[in-house]
Structures are given as structure tokens and as C-alpha cells.
Specification:
The chain is of the alpha+beta class and 127 residues long. It has three helices and five strands, in the order αβββααββ. It is 24% helix and 19% strand.
């Protein structure tokens, strides 16, 4: 079910539970601001989720309310994860869904890092 990104943060969402250690994950990276882990339902050979540790529903929420340190730390962590996984030379895609039209499924900001094959066009063309 798609998430309404204008709603308040739900601390019972799956990523909040992962951050609290209630649900395990296959961790790739962790620092003060960020946790990155393998997606349990990968859509490409490499599919890593990168989430901020703060309670942010979406990119819009994060960019409006997060501190400069959180924003800087998170953006740097996404780059670090891609470099550490060896994805820069072959290429990778970042995707952050916000709201119902994008089919955001978890009400916690997350960036998908897709790689490991030719990914094709990002969106279907509308004529």
C-alpha cells in the first residue's frame, strides 16, 4: 500500500523496527546518521537500502526538518556505500520514492541503490 508522505512518522514501520534491532538486516554500512542494508526483495543483482537514523517520512520531510549534519552525513553515506560496493565504474541508480504517486511503501525515508546489470529506462514514456 502506498504511503501518504504528508502523514506523521509512524514509529512502527519496518525500518524503525530495523533501527531498533527488532528486525534483523544484512548490514552493509552504519555510522552516526545512517544505516545501509541489503533489500530482502531485491529488484536488481545489487539492491541496497540506505536510511537515515532519524524519524523522517520522506525526502521532503528530511530536507525540511533534518539538521545540516544529518543531511550531510546521509548524502555522504549514500556515496560511501556505492563506492565501497564497487558500483561507481559500472554505474548505479539511486531512487527515493515520496508519496502515493511514486508508490512509496514504507513511511521512512530510504534511498534504493540499484546496480549489477543494465537497468534500462527509468520511466515508461507517456505519449
Amino acid at each position: 500500500m502506498a504511503v501518504d508522505a504528508t502523514q506523521p512518522y509512524d514509529d512502527q514501520n519496518v525500518f524503525a523496527k530495523i533501527l531498533r534491532g527488532e528486525i534483523p538486516c544484512r548490514k552493509v554500512f552504519e555510522d552516526e546518521w545512517t544505516l545501509a542494508f541489503h533489500d530482502i526483495n531485491p529488484q536488481s543483482p545489487t539492491h541496497i537500502l540506505v536510511i537515515p537514523k532519524g524519524a523522517y517520512v520522506s525526502w521532503d520531510d528530511f530536507s525540511a526538518r533534518a539538521s545540516d549534519a544529518e543531511i550531510t552525513g546521509f548524502v555522504r553515506a549514500v556515496g560511501h556505500v556505492a563506492r565501497a560496493a564497487g558500483l561507481v565504474a559500472p554505474g548505479y541508480r539511486l531512487l527515493a520514492n515520496t508519496g502515493t504517486n511514486s508508490h512509496q511503501e514504507v513511511p521512512h525515508l530510504h534511498v534504493h541503490v540499484f546496480a549489477g546489470r543494465q537497468l534500462g529506462p527509468l520511466l515508461a514514456r507517456v505519449d
